[in-house]
Design goal:
Layout (H helix, E strand, L loop, with lengths): L7 H5 L24 H11 L6 E4 L4 E3 H18 L7 E5 L4 H12 L3 E5 L5 H11 L3 E5 L3 H5 L8 E5 L7 H5 L16 E6 L9 E5 H9 L1 H6 L6 E4 L6 H13 L3 E3 L9 H8 L3 E4 L1 H7 L13 E4 L6 H11 L4 E5 L6 E4 L12 E2 L4 E5 L12 E6 L12 H4 E2 L2 E10 L5 E6 L4 E3 L2 E3 L1 H9 L4 E11 L3 E10 L7 H14 L8 E4 L13 H7 L1
Parallel strand pairs: 1-10, 3-4, 3-5, 5-6, 9-10, 9-11, 11-12, 12-13, 24-25
Antiparallel strand pairs: 1-2, 7-8, 13-14, 14-15, 16-17, 17-19, 18-19, 19-20, 21-22, 23-24
Helix pairs in contact: 2-3, 2-4, 2-8, 3-4, 12-13
């Protein structure tokens, strides 16, 4: 069943036999058959007397929950009355993090349509692929990013409206004509409400379909049981809202408890500490790379309001954890999530953090490490991470569904082991394991060893073909200022790795570079390193 008039998404869920087993064991995961997550996360606060609580802060705006609701309702009226959006239509959202982008996301979902948020740096070719794949008919775009979108040639895209501009037909002027409340469409809990495209670490993004139930389930698991989000929280972070790490951490999770979020267009490590001090932030979300870069700056800012720091998006090296704790006294909360499962499913809180270990399954989820046949492996053995929970992979029209979901489990593409204490310990992406001279070597372990050397600012490790050993470990290293990338330093780094981890894991080749290739969300693109090697 679906409430959608446009049944595109309903007709393109993978066959039920290819779905992972969905688990709703926790009492808080029981939802009614009709559910609109925009109403649950926004309207409920206003209805229950919390409308004047601070909700969103931007560089040029500051909205309460009631003010955000008025913006959302006006935009929803524009979508449905002026642009002809009907439930089930896909609406592309394009822009950096701003309260206006957040309002557009909620308006699309409240109107029963499907939000397809895209990374601001995507170019015309990439936008065209997303639009064609999801058959997107409407777009709401930051006026400063219109050029690439206007260059798209697609038979599907019919209407584009700009916001944060001064055009007479811009979204704000259209919205100003609508002052009546907008009643949220009574969508089915299992209706698709967002399609999130993966961030491209493999170079081939996929569309991940998630329902209203998925969104609400995500707010009831990790933020409630691990983060323990509070109504007096003020959150900030670097991930774009188009990245599910950012959507959850900066929008869905704080609003699920009536907290506030600071949305920055440019949340780079060089400015985040100052913004944390300015807005008295309690919770920060960013990548390990950013925490490492920020550690040297914290002494220049008053970060006394900061209570929690969340690291995700890529593996957290032990050296980065130690560096941040030494600088701030705060233990990083590490976790692994996936666009396919919407957010974090294995994590730890501050009290149970251990260097090198990701943690244990988040309440609501179960996980195990399996072999190629799907059999659970004993503790200590490296295998494929398999996960089940209230969210799971449903790709939009993609044959790769059958590779990701096997035997009812989501196979995330990560290699893990479970240690003697039951903690899940990350090894590498399964396709990034390096087999050299018969040994299995995890690139992130070598990276963590290199990062502990005082000369290394960043590094990435991959396997490259070798006639004698099958593969050898090659490291791409960004040096800190004052160090020269010469043969003497190569030897020093190799000796350092041999003294830190098993000697056979040391990088037999080291290349020095000015920067590493990363996605817009900060993830290292190892496939580009492999190509260059």
């Amino acid at each position: 069943m679906t409430s959608h008039q446009d049944t595109f998404a309903h007709d393109r869920w993978p066959p039920r036999a290819q779905w992972p087993q969905m688990i709703y064991e926790l009492p808080e995961l029981q939802f009614p058959s009709h559910l609109n997550c925009a109403r649950e996360l926004l309207d409920t606060h206003v209805e229950q007397g919390r409308g004047e609580r601070l909700c969103l802060v931007g560089e040029h705006s500051r909205w309460s929950y009631a003010e955000l609701q008025r913006q959302v309702d006006a935009i929803a009226h524009v979508l449905t009355q002026e642009l002809g959006v009907v439930p089930g239509n896909r609406v592309l959202l394009r822009g950096p993090n701003t309260p206006m982008l957040a309002a557009c996301w909620y308006a699309v979902v409240k109107a029963g349509a499907i939000a397809v948020a895209t990374m601001p740096l995507l170019r015309t070719k990439e936008l065209t692929a997303v639009i064609d794949k999801a058959q997107i008919s409407h777009a709401l775009c930051d006026a400063r990013l219109l050029d690439e979108l206007h260059a798209v040639q697609s038979p599907y895209l019919k209407h584009t409206v700009a916001y944060l501009g001064d055009a007479d037909d811009g979204l704000e002027r259209r919205a100003a004509r609508h002052t009546a409340p907008f009643a949220a469409v009574a969508t089915e809990a299992d209706d698709c409400c967002l399609i999130a495209f993966t961030s491209g670490t493999t170079g081939q993004p996929k569309g991940c379909m998630h329902s209203h139930r998925d969104v609400m389930a995500a707010t009831r698991c990790w933020p409630r049981h691990v983060l323990r989000a509070r109504a007096d929280d003020v959150v900030i972070g670097s991930p774009p809202l188009a990245f599910t790490f950012g959507l959850g951490g900066l929008l869905l999770f704080p609003m699920s408890v009536g907290a506030a979020a600071v949305l920055l267009e440019r949340a780079m490590p060089d400015v985040l500490p100052a913004y944390i001090a300015q807005y008295r932030v309690t919770t920060c979300y960013t990548s390990p790379t950013a925490y490492r870069a920020m550690a040297a700056q914290v002494g220049a800012h008053d970060l006394s309001s900061l209570r929690q720091c969340v690291s995700a998006g890529e593996a957290l090296p032990a050296a980065t954890r130690a560096l941040w704790k030494e600088a701030t006294g705060i233990e990083l909360i590490d976790g692994i999530g996936a666009t396919e499962l919407l957010h974090i499913f294995i994590s730890h809180d501050e009290a149970h953090a251990r260097p090198g270990a990701t943690g244990t399954p988040v309440p609501g989820y179960r996980a195990r490490v399996v072999d190629e046949a799907g059999r659970e492996l004993p503790r200590g053995q490296v295998g494929r991470l398999a996960v089940q929970g209230p969210t799971g992979c449903r790709y939009l029209d993609d044959a790769r569904q059958q590779a990701y979901v096997q035997h009812g489990w989501n196979l995330t593409g990560d290699a893990y082991l479970v240690d003697d204490e039951g903690c899940f310990v990350y090894q590498a992406r399964t396709d990034d394991m390096i087999i050299s001279g018969g040994y299995n070597i995890a690139g992130p372990e070598v990276e963590a060893a290199l990062l502990a050397h005082p000369a290394v600012a960043e590094c990435g490790v991959v396997g490259v073909a070798d006639a004698a050993r099958g593969q050898i470990v090659k490291a791409f290293v960004v040096l800190k200022p004052g160090y020269a990338g010469d043969a003497e330093l190569v030897a020093a780094l190799q000796a350092h790795v041999k003294a830190t981890i098993a000697p056979y894991k040391y990088p037999r080749a080291i290349a020095f570079c000015a920067a590493l290739p990363r996605t817009e969300t900060g993830k290292l693109q190892r496939f580009k390193l492999k190509d260059s090697a």
